[in-house]
């Protein structure tokens, strides 16, 4: 959905997302072709020495200890694997990054942004310039950084090990400014975090300040430990958000939480219900060995008419690998179409295997399932609505 629309979807249980201090007005930089990175910052001041088992980094100044964490992510988690493979965290805004210099004032950065993107609205100009300025000047070596993959519903945590560097060769990937990062091998599963931490890290704000409890939650889960509930977050007055975009993202993430909590049989019925809403008739296999055919969808309901779509549904935390894709493809006919659903996501090898498959094959993650559900919800039948009850929320256009 775009800001021009007047509706969003939310779950009926829990109640629709409400605005808190973490969703005050701030505008995400989505008006520029390369400004696809959102940054959230976690910053707190603690009185006295830190003894948390989360091993929080510290900066000492007159007896105070400051701990910081930054969320940096590409649009839709698109840079998650790039960050991991290259050992970096990066932001876009290539035209601005080429002229930005360490030590520039925020106002100087805003002026550069205005010259680089003259068609951007004033709020986006302030927000975009502020993110580049903070990435270059406020983020420091030794700070924690976290990035999110909506497809896998996992967070990757690391420590910043270098200063911001202009990387023109990565500009087309939305990574014009990069900092080296030492990523930890243990990812954090979103479902293990507190509801408040999820909401804080799920904001559409480009730069966002949240309390130290959210950082402790993430770090504790990264270390395999429990943590206290995160408190409400605060926001920098200079950061302005697109209120509708914030509500839409929060609603979509809450719907993901609801769908992810379904059992396997409900998930299978949900996928079948979405396909019916898209105009197909479905046959759902009973529990037991199905030889890679959980659902068969076709125009006639028997699989005689084309396209005949064979669907495999895997509802688990772990990613599916290339061997699972090869096994699925091994039982298909040449005129079949394939849909493989994995709520735990897919490895890069699995995606490569799907790209070179001998039949058309689509891979759906939990994110794809929820987006398809929202798009076709009005056309779903009563059984599908019972599995995932949603209600429409209207918003001024």
Based on CA atoms alone, the radius of gyration comes out at: 22 Å
Mean pLDDT: 80
First-residue to last-residue Cα separation: 12 Å
Secondary-structure content class: alpha+beta
Which residues form runs of ≥5 with pLDDT under 50?
A: 1-7, 13-65, 229-235
The coarse silhouette is elongated
Tally of contiguous helical segments: 12
What summary fits the major beta sheet?
10 strands, mixed
Provide the helix percentage: 25-40%
Kindly estimate the percentage of residues that lie in beta strands according to DSSP: 15-25%
Output the helix-strand order: EEEEHEHHHEEEEEHEHHHEEEHEHEHHE
* Total number of beta strands: 17
Oligomer: single chain
What does this protein look like?
Helices cover 31% and strands 23% of the residues. It has 397 residues and is α+β, with helices and mostly antiparallel strands. It has 12 helices and 17 strands. A hairpin with a 4-residue loop joins strand 6 (144-149) and strand 7. The longest helix has 18 residues, at 243-260. The protein starts with 6 loop residues before the first strand and ends with a strand.
